[in-house]
Amino acid sequence: MKQSEHLIYKYLRSSKRFPHIWCPGCGIGILLGALIRAIDDIGYSKDDIVLISGIGCSGRLPTYVDFNTLHTTHGRALTFATGIKLARPSLKVIVVMGDGDATAIGGNHFIHAARRNVDVTTIVINNQTYGMTGGQFSPTTPFGLETSSSPYGNLEHPFDICGLAGEAGATFVARSTVYHARLLEEMIGKALHKEGFSVVEVISHCPTYFGRQIGMESPVEMMKWQRDNAVRVERAKELGEEELRDKIVIGVLVDREASTYHKEYERLRAKSRLEDNAL
Ligand SMILES: Cc1ncc(C[n+]2csc(CCOP(=O)(O)OP(=O)(O)O)c2C)c(N)n1
Ligand code: SF4
Known about the structure:
Blueprint: H1 3-11, H2 14-17, H3 28-42, E1 49-53, E2 68-71, H4 77-87, E3 92-98, H5 99-105, H6 107-116, E4 121-126, H7 161-168, E5 172-177, H8 181-193, E6 198-203, H9 207-213, H10 219-229, E7 230-232, H11 233-236, H12 241-244, E8 248-255, H13 261-278
Parallel strand pairs: 1-2, 1-3, 3-4, 4-6, 5-6, 7-8
Antiparallel strand pairs: 5-8
The structure holds thiamine diphosphate and iron/sulfur cluster.
């Protein structure tokens, strides 16, 4: 049996869930493959993993895999993840969200989970649009773009998701595109190894909505755009601001140490128990 076939049987809930809902050529399936390979490579048991999502095309991902999974409400995946990590610290908690899910309705949860350094690996699939609801602009849609909710052009400037995560306190931040599938797998592996709030931003393509809006209907064309506009972080350090304009910097952007929320919480609980006993 080929390795890919072996992973399909091992990790996918193939019996009832397929065919999946994603459009032909959508980038989310490439991320799913990279995530499964990274998990398999580390050798976690399926029962040790909790995979959580909110709502959106990206939010459907956990329904297809045979881990402990939770499909929650829009923008709230990190609140469920925080609760699970505090209640069962031994579990490996992974969250997958779209750019809207993570930085619009869930933006507050995203920055505070980073600030608290909750030990969760968060994967943000950035397709620069609200895919599931029909191509409305999101916090990562380019300025000026005509979308279904900005017919005269988007008035807002896009977030840099990695910059936001790093500034808010995430201890590991990385970016890849789905074109760079092997790098993506490597970045997810590193994020999973990290204790603390780790974020991997995945630049993905939504040919159905975003592709049409920017005049690129073919997924191949969109992936070539990812290939041609990506710059490795090591190379980016040698380039100026102008040369990096509109480029996608890929690789590890932040890697630092800080104490995690669940360990601080355990310490606090132990201290309060000691003080109660002394009364
Ligand atoms: C509370 C709430 N508000 C709005 C919606 C409608 N809604 C569903 S998915 C979505 C946006 C999806 O965009 P994104 O998170 O970027 O994910 P994608 O579909 O692009 O993967 C919205 C606004 C909802 N389900 N719940
Ligand atoms: S609408 Fe876009 S993001 Fe959603 S499944 Fe289709 S191509 Fe993928």
